[in-house]
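Protocol step 4 of 5: obtain the predicted structure for the target chain.
Materials: sequence only (see below). No template structures provided, no constraints applied. The aim of this step is simply to have a reference model before the mutagenesis design in step 5. Sequence pasted as it appears in the construct record:
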Amino acid sequence: MFKRLKSDIRCVFERDPAARNTFEVITTYPGLHAILWYRVAHWLWSIGLKWLARFISTIARWLTGIEIHPAAKIGERFFIDHGMGVVIGETAEIGDDCTLYHGVTLGGTSWQKGKRHPTLGNGVVVGAGAKVLGPIEIGDNARIGSNAVVVKPVSEGKTVVGIPGREVDQKDNDLEKRRAKMAEKIGFDAYGVGQEMADPVEKAIYSLLDHIQVQDEKMEAMAKELAKLGGALIETKLPELNDAVLEPNDPVQAAHLKKE
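Step 4 output (structure tokens):
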């Protein structure tokens, strides 16, 4: 028990740069408090004292804002950051080295008894507000994006975003080249910040930008050919960005001003 307690405390320092010392973690981290209460309640549940286990988990919910059913199975070095609003259901199973942020629900989708909550592998991270629902398996080292709603199994090492949740891959070189090219052409990056994972919606937007760019190039070529035949050369400038509507620290504005 004490060995597991030490590992639960140690993992806080590994995953939260705001943690300064052991005393502060033990006295001020509700996620750790919820885990300590859960360990006691789970032990009571396992020896048949189910009402007392439920009562202790209810007290823990009042004190921490985190609801963990005592029958849930949670591995070592489990970390709940911030914690408020986290719900972990009765048949949920969580592996080692997992991290949950505030507002996460590991819930069921059926009123039938038996396995009805998700199973998380080792090293899984679930972002703030995400809902993982049903008796599905989340593979080792998977990532669930903030506010995603996941109702299907997730493969090992994959990242899931959106509603309903969908797996996304690392960005390819073509997407990065396209981003740089369009940023140079129209004066700003469409998203303003870099992202590790490619969003399918972002891919669709950049596909449209590709199409527009090809059309622009064709129009420029046609204008030059018409000029060669004696027509007037058509000069077209892209519209300026309206700096007045942008925040002073907006990354879009910063990129635009840098280009100017």
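Step 4 remarks: Residues 182-194, 243-248, 252-260 have pLDDT under 50 and may be disordered. The first strand starts at residue 67 and ends at 68.
Proceed to step 5.
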